[in-house]
Amino acid sequence: MLEAVRVGRPNTAMKGFAGLLSDSEIRAVIEFIEMTFIAEKRTNSRYHTPANGWQDHERYRDAFPFALGQIPLDTPSQSLTAPQRRGKSIFMSSCITCHDRATVREAGVAWDARAVSYPRGGYEPGQSRKAPDSVSAATPYARYDQAPVFDDLDAEQARGEKLFQTNCAFCHGADGTARNWIGRFLDPHPRDLTALQDNRPDHLRQVIREGLPGTTMSAWKYVLTEPEIDAIIAYIKRAFVTDNR
Q: Does domain 134-244 have CATH number 1.10.760.10?
């Protein structure tokens, strides 16, 4: 616990506090946590208290089974009693912001890369042979979500094309310029791959594997294999790097 507070935990939102708290302060925090939350489980340490702005928290009691995961949130309404239906309604209107969806029977898709505001109509980046609807096509971003078309890619480049357009185009744009809607929305903007020079393949591999601190470029080493990363690099060099076009 001391190490986690001092240096943080990789791949989580837990940051290190060594630069903000002294060792004695960190130890005091840990002692408080161990005594209050672990050993004694004090009731005055609970979040839903009047001191925290939760007056008469019991009025939400019908929603407690959903917040605690005792009743799956996707239970059909016809299978719920009247108090449970009321509790679900309370949970959806008052609790879900902090408790997320609690427990569900069917988890569904954890992440869907399809944009919900642009492009519309089920169009996804990289679908160069499927035109977006008329509204999306009229935006200034549409041209950057059209992938370049090649008929001479080798096997590795073709594999990299599929991987890039599936995983990378959402931020970098299907054409690699990062001038698509998501790319312009992110701050700092994703790298314009058409501005790369064909002399830093090791740097490109490092960035894809480890990510870029201070940006939205995450580490892909936990998602992509080394051969898949190499295939993406081969496609980037063929499709976007100026010296190769």
A: yes
How many whole angstroms separate alpha carbon 36 and alpha carbon 235? 55
The per-residue b/e assignment along 88-118, b for 16 or more CB within 10 angstroms, e otherwise, is bebbeeebbeeeeebbeeeeeeeeeeebeeb
Domain boundaries, the chain: 1-45, 46-107, 134-244
Q: In whole angstroms, give the CA distance from residue 81 to residue 77.
A: 8
pLDDT digits (tens, 9 = 90+) for 30-41: 998 888 888 887
How many Cα atoms sit within 13 Å of 44 on the Cβ side? 2
pLDDT at 235 over 90: yes
Report how far residue 85's alpha carbon sits from residue 108's, in angstroms, rounded to the nearest whole number: 22
Q: Which residues contact 94 (CB under 8 A, 6 or more apart)?
A: 60, 63
pTM: 0.50
Contact by Cβ (8 Å): 29, 1: no
